[in-house]
């Protein structure tokens, strides 16, 4: 695999004007200077997002579709220094939030119990009917 160029945050932040605009999205660095005029959301949002530092949340909040995700590959120039290699690339925010939720102890317990649910229910029904048979009959 080709080695990616690594940029520091301060280096990226030097490029946030209408003529020279770099974006950080999910740990990757994009030079969108030549895309500004074509962006359906306009050039201003891109320049603003560039000045704000990490544009990942702004990018996901808009709900960009697959078209945007494939276009952005053409403008990738490298990765951000210190970014997690497992999260680099169009890894949607919603999936990251889901991962976090799944790690809470209650969710883990529910996930563990879910496959056992039919067995527990059958056990309860069996217990109910078998204990009914043993009950003393009223006169
Ligand atoms: C390399 C990065 C980006 C690419 C390639 C890109 C591309 C696109 C494309 C193709 C659309 C049309 C809808 C779609 O296909 O999802 C779109 C819409 C839009 N984008 Fe981006 N975008 C990028 C970054 C951003 C960022 C950082 C923002 C910041 C807020 C932004 C804001 C918007 C908005 C507001 C729209 C909606 C326009 C409308 O429907 O009126 N985009 N973008």
UniProtKB/TrEMBL annotation:
Residues 4-81 form the Cytochrome b5 heme-binding domain. Gene3D superfamilies: Cytochrome b5-like heme/steroid binding domain (3.10.120.10). GO terms for molecular function: heme binding; metal ion binding. The chain crosses the membrane at residues 106-129. Coiled coil: none annotated. Pfam families: Cyt-b5. InterPro entries: Cyt_B5-like_heme/steroid-bd, Cyt_B5-like_heme/steroid_sf, Cyt_B5_heme-BS, Cytochrome_b5. GO terms for cellular component: membrane. It is found in: Membrane. Keywords: Heme, Iron, Membrane, Metal-binding, Transmembrane, Transmembrane helix. Its main location: membrane. PANTHER family: CYTOCHROME B5, CYTOCHROME B5-LIKE HEME_STEROID BINDING DOMAIN CONTAINING PROTEIN, EXPRESSED. This is Cytochrome b5-like protein.
């Amino acid at each position: 695999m080709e080695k990616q160029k690594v940029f520091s945050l301060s280096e990226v932040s030097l490029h946030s004007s209408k003529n020279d605009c770099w974006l950080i999205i999910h740990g990757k660095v994009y030079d969108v200077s030549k895309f500004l005029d074509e962006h359906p959301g306009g050039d201003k949002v891109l320049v603003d997002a560039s000045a704000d530092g990490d544009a990942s949340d702004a990018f996901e909040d808009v709900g960009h579709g697959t078209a945007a995700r494939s276009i952005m590959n053409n403008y990738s120039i490298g990765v951000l220094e210190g970014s997690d290699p497992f999260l680099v690339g169009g890894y949607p925010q919603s999936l990251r939030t889901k991962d976090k939720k799944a790690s809470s102890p209650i969710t883990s317990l529910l996930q563990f119990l879910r496959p056992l649910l039919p067995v527990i229910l059958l056990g309860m029904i069996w217990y109910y009917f078998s204990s009914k048979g043993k009950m003393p009959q009223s006169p």
